Amino acid sequence: MSIIALLTDFGTRDWFVGSMKGVILGINPAVSVVDITHAVSQGNIRASALALMASYRCFPKKTIFTVVVDPGVGSSRRAIVADTGFYCFVAPDNGVLSFVLREQNKPVVYAIENDTYFRKSVSTTFHGRDIFAPVAAYLSTGISPVTVGPEVKKWITISWPELLIAENDVTGVVIYIDHFGNAFTNITSESIKHLLKPTCYIPGEPTKELPIVHFYEEVPDGEACALINSAGYLEIAVNNGNAAEQYALAIESTVRIHCR
Amino acid sequence: MSIIALLTDFGTRDWFVGSMKGVILGINPAVSVVDITHAVSQGNIRASALALMASYRCFPKKTIFTVVVDPGVGSSRRAIVADTGFYCFVAPDNGVLSFVLREQNKPVVYAIENDTYFRKSVSTTFHGRDIFAPVAAYLSTGISPVTVGPEVKKWITISWPELLIAENDVTGVVIYIDHFGNAFTNITSESIKHLLKPTCYIPGEPTKELPIVHFYEEVPDGEACALINSAGYLEIAVNNGNAAEQYALAIESTVRIHCR
Amino acid sequence: MSIIALLTDFGTRDWFVGSMKGVILGINPAVSVVDITHAVSQGNIRASALALMASYRCFPKKTIFTVVVDPGVGSSRRAIVADTGFYCFVAPDNGVLSFVLREQNKPVVYAIENDTYFRKSVSTTFHGRDIFAPVAAYLSTGISPVTVGPEVKKWITISWPELLIAENDVTGVVIYIDHFGNAFTNITSESIKHLLKPTCYIPGEPTKELPIVHFYEEVPDGEACALINSAGYLEIAVNNGNAAEQYALAIESTVRIHCR
Predict the structure, then answer these.
(1) How far is B111 from chain C, CA to nearest CA, in Å?
(2) Do A25 and B3 touch (CB under 8 A)?
(3) Shortest CA gap B213–chain A (Å)
(4) Taking a C-beta distance cutoff of 8 angstroms, is the pair C247, C208 a contact?
(5) How many CA atoms within 13 Å lie on the side-chain side of A8?
(6) Handedness of CA C236, B10, C188, C101 (dihedral sign)
(7) Structural domains present in chain C
(8) Could you tell me which chains touch chain A, where touching means 3 or more CB pairs under 8 A?
(9) According to the model, what pLDDT value does residue B49 have?
């Protein structure tokens, strides 16, 4: 039994995700379809790339990830399959695979062109249903990625926000805010290893100094802390509260770790 | 492996959909249950009928669609199974199947009366769990629709909003607004074929003239356009924006296509 | 084919639930994973306990319920498996199983300690993915609950709100408000059997007397009623409306049933 994992900005209010699943099961009735999320904000390529990066390693070998966050649908933007040997990723070529592909050793990428794997009639507004779903479904039946189209050597990449690493501090930014209001930064545990007695500093009015802890309940209810989260990055959280609201954190907000 | 596709107004905040799935898998552990949506607004029969119409053809033969948008639950309203030979539809007899059944050649419709297919104790408020889910599950195991109850020759139908087709223009209405704010109308590509250089006109203050395009990115970000959508109907959209909000479009808003 | 039913407060905006499913399917590709809900409000143990109580009996024998509403994640709070012979429940030991365990005859409860069933690297913020999902998945493959850790004789329980039963009236409270605004109380049909011609009274300004009916449409659109709901408890509802909003009902609001 193979797995197709879906990540889109389609929401769950309409019939879009259900339609993709209908198409997939029509081609491969034995596949397990798993939703990563469909609630990425409209056309948000960076958030999709992050959500994929934070989750893909939980899935077993041969999982086919299908990412449809696709503001350019119907235009001449390319669609691609990236084969890492371990996983396959199916997506528009708009950068949504950037953060997983930078972690791979030589992925092989193909342009999706072979329309024998498309639905019979392809719309200009719903390639999720008409191209990405059926291509993923055929891949899950065992066809080789080679058959979807020619190999390509370049694909669109969005940049990873780099850290500023200094002797006494490391400066990063918020890259994602989750459902609980936890603010996920680009600061890794590795990058702050050289800091003696590190503490977390959020600029603002007034500025805020936060303890770096191991789990949320180390601080009292309603108090903020920083910790290395389940994806391996520093996160600002409020125990039983919403850190993003409480400290007006947004994507690209600065976060600094320095020595006490 | 057979498929049961669910469409309800139960939302996903409570345990209602999960309960239906528990009942289904207790009867047929091998079935694949697919969510079309559970976010239809409370008791909205027209929106359910449309969501079903826009998605059912994506599913393979023998799919059993189970639609539970059922404000009359517990009253004397009938429950029905409609068998089209290709698909089965299970629903309250309140019009939710109207738009799929008008596309069928002689569906055979049965009143659900045989309580051997019901849960042992039937509540008066949750027939989704106690009647529709188990009947769908038994159908997915291969029982004949004939066994659920007597054939009926009439069922409740809601009307399809008709188009006004003239020599130089076609007038329709918005029939659905999706998650992205795209406004789906009842205007088909067929109905506007006779118009030379058609353009789309939305009444209002001020009125708005929109180009008819093939895909969203033909217009700049934030600009509106009209196009034939993935269900085959004219849709008003804003590239990377929300057309319904930007032009105050609602269900039944007038949209006119005329010659330039 | 076995079933794992998930109930969390993770929401569906991020990748958390998808990650748990990836882990589960990596261990047992043949399991069916069913969502009860992921929309419990953050850390709300009482609401989770109720949602589980209201739904678990719909699932077939051997279902493994996995409840991750876990404000104490990473702290020294225990994780447990409760085996009732019929079902298994996997959860933090914080009271979320209280309402199902009070309905069982001698459940056997084990502390989860055997890390051979954990993910290789266990984070301090996401035991849903690193402990609960893999333990549930191994249980679904048939390992004995005995192997997860030592049996425990005590576990944390939250109290069930008791009824005040008098000769001429029964007083209870609202314990849950659903997606439709229906207010679910702790008053059972059994508890009001001794009342002659019962009617439902909601204190407030002005107070309100509601008829006890069998189904929603017994009252006109927009009118309130009380009825025994699909979980067996008295519920305040408004036909095609939102009772909680209309009567400012909240958790712990008083509801009284008395003789007319």
Answers:
(1) 20
(2) yes
(3) 10
(4) yes
(5) 29
(6) negative
(7) 3-152 (3.40.50.10790), 164-259 (2.40.30.90)
(8) B, C
(9) 97
Name the closest residue on chain C to residue A229, using Cα atoms. Answer: C125
Asked whether residue A1 carries a pLDDT value surpassing 80, the answer given is: no
**Residues whose CB falls within 8 Å of the CB of residue C76, separated by 6 or more in sequence, listed in order:** none
How high is the pLDDT of residue A73? 87
CA–CA separation, B169 vs B163, rounded Å? 10
- CB pair distance less than 8 Å for C217 and B75: yes
Buried b (16+ CB within 10 A) or exposed e, B195-215: beebbbbbeeeeeeebebbeb
Cβ count near B85 (within 10 Å): 11
What's the length of chain B? 260
**Calpha distance B63→B43 (Å, rounded):** 24
Mean pLDDT (whole number) for B83-100: 97
Distance, CA of C46 to CA of C95 (rounded, Å): 8
- Closest of C96, C40, C54 to residue C188, by C-alpha: C54
Please give the structure tokens belonging to residue B46: 């027209």
Q: How many Cα atoms within 13 Å fall on the side-chain side of residue C47?
A: 25
Q: What is the pLDDT of residues C132-181, one digit of tens each?
A: 999 999 999 999 999 999 999 999 999 999 999 999 999 999 999 999 99
How far apart CA A155 and CA B193 sit, in angstroms, is 39
Measured between CA atoms, how close is C3 to chain A, in angstroms? 13
Of A12, A58, A227, which is closest to C129 when you measure between CB atoms?
A58
Q: What is the DSSP string of A23-50?
A: HHHHH-TTPEEEEEES-S-TT-HHHHHH
Chains contacting B (3+ CB pairs below 8 angstroms): A, C
Q: For residue C100, which of C62, C65, C138 has the smallest C-alpha distance?
A: C65
Contact call for B60 and A26, based on CB within 8 A: yes
Q: What's the pLDDT band for B253 if we cut at 50, 70, 90?
A: very high
Residue showing tokens 């055929």: A138
Point out which residues pair with B258 in neighbouring strands.
B169, B199
Single-letter code of the amino acid located at A44: N
Residue B236 phi/psi, 5° resolution?
Answer: -95, 125
Compute the distance between CA of residue C110 and CA of residue C149 in angstroms, rounded to an integer.
Answer: 6
Residue-level pLDDT at B74: 84
Pure H helices in chain B: 16-27, 45-55, 98-101, 127, 133-140, 243-246
Residue type, C254: T
Give C-chain residues touching A233 at CB under 8 angstroms. Answer: none
Bridge partners, residue A61, by sequence: none
Please name the residue of chain A whose CA is at the shortest distance from the CA of residue B176. A14
User: What is the four-CA torsion angle of C137, C140, C146, C148, rounded to 10 degrees?
Assistant: 0
* Chain C residues touching B92 at Cβ < 8 A: none
Q: How near does any CA of chain C get to the CA of B130, in Å?
A: 9
Helix (H) or strand (E) holding B37: strand B32-37
Token pair listed for C150: 């030592």
Provide the CA C192 distance to its chain's centre, in angstroms: 23
What is the mean pLDDT of the segment spanning C69-73? 90
Position C202 pLDDT exceeds 80: yes
Cβ of C21 and A38 within 8 Å?
Answer: no
C221 vs A76: CA distance, rounded Å? 51
Of residues B258, B257, B250, B247, the one with CA closest to residue B174: B250
B100 phi/psi in degrees, rounded to 5? -80, -35
H helices of B141-257, where?
243-246
Q: Is the CB of A12 less than 8 angstroms away from the CB of B37?
A: yes
Calculate the dihedral angle through the C-alpha atoms of A167, A168, A174, A177, rounding to the nearest 10 degrees.
120
